[in-house]
Write a structure and sequence with these properties.
With 315 residues, the protein is α/β, with parallel strands linked by helices. It is built from 13 helices and ten strands. The protein is globular and about 55 Å long. It starts with a helix and ends with a helix.
């Protein structure tokens, strides 16, 4: 297994870091690649602030017989000091493929596994308790862990039934943290009620520099209630990439140690004090390395955040 220090040297030698500043990587090497970390309020555990999601392109490559891309991106995550891997049974073969590859690489115990539960669907259906239990047992088998780090009710599917099951599993010690997720604006009011009333550890939500609806109520409430926040779609899926296509990163982005558009967008997200981890999905090791660069160096203050917003809104 390649060490983080050797991996950094390899990146510098081959240019695999793309726009991650060599000076910043050398500083990280001297510090044994210590990324920015955030604390889970309910447990006190600290997590690197950038992780890996497994929807979209990751899910696509996970369905291929050749899992080389999955292997490379998971190796890059761990080599760069990352831990958080977010997946779901509904992301095609992502959960199963990642569990198998992590086992082969011997990194399963180093990862913070976050998966999801939803047999009710996303349209307000009712979850069959037996089916819900079967789905989560399948996740245990795929990830090959006796205890899962985090399981969340996906897109608020039948929260009373499915969150009730997760509470049982947390009480039994089989699941360490529980929560709920949504990326649908029509569910934000329901999410707010759950955060305000339920004893959850995490929420998973969409948040990006051009999608700041969470700042109004959800993020402040999560912070006040001691609920950790996983951020999904910090690039607006493909929305932000379309916006900056052909645009040059401004020189002043170096003031916050952002050396690519990915780092620019991620640093904005991470600069909100309620955010625990951002989990952009990717299937490419070079993008994983670039993303992890956002967890190095400075983050924007309030004035810089406004400058960043103005730049993106002006495009």
């Amino acid at each position: 297994m390649i060490s983080r220090r050797d991996y950094l040297k390899l990146c510098l030698a081959t240019g695999a870091t793309l726009s991650v500043a060599p000076g910043l990587l050398r500083a990280a090497e001297d510090k044994a690649l210590a990324p920015i970390t955030r604390t889970i309020p309910s447990s006190g555990e600290r997590l690197p602030a950038v992780g890996l999601g497994s929807s979209a392109t990751f899910a696509q490559v996970a369905g291929n017989p050749d899992l080389a891309a999955v292997r490379e991106v998971l190796q890059a995550l761990v080599a760069q000091g990352g831990r958080v891997f977010d997946t779901a049974p509904s992301y095609g073969a992502a959960e199963e493929a990642a569990g198998r590859v992590a086992g082969e690489l011997g990194i399963g115990e180093r990862l913070f596994w976050a998966t999801k539960l939803n047999v009710a669907g996303w349209g307000g259906g009712t979850a069959d308790p037996a089916a819900a239990r079967a789905q989560i047992e399948t996740s245990f088998q795929r990830i090959d862990r006796p205890v899962l780090d985090l399981v969340q009710v996906h897109n608020l599917g039948d929260v009373p039934t499915q969150l009730g099951l997760l509470k049982e599993l947390r009480a039994q010690g089989r699941v360490r943290h529980i929560g709920v997720t949504t990326t649908f604006p029509c569910q934000y009011d329901a999410l707010e009620r759950i955060v305000a009333s339920e004893p959850i550890d995490f929420i998973g939500v969409d948040y990006a520099i051009d999608n700041r609806a969470m700042e109004a109520r959800i993020l402040p409430l999560a912070q006040a209630r001691g609920v950790a926040v996983l951020v999904y779609a910090p690039f607006g899926r493909t929305r932000l990439w379309e916006r900056v296509r052909g645009q040059t990163l401004p020189a002043w982005a170096a003031e916050i140690d952002a050396h690519s558009w990915a780092q620019f967008f991620l640093k904005f997200v991470l600069s909100h004090p309620a955010v625990t981890v951002a989990t952009p999905a990717t299937s490419k090791a070079r993008h994983m390395i670039d993303n992890m660069g956002a967890a190095l160096g400075a983050l924007p203050d309030a004035a810089m955040r406004q400058r960043m917003i103005a730049l993106v809104e002006g495009m």
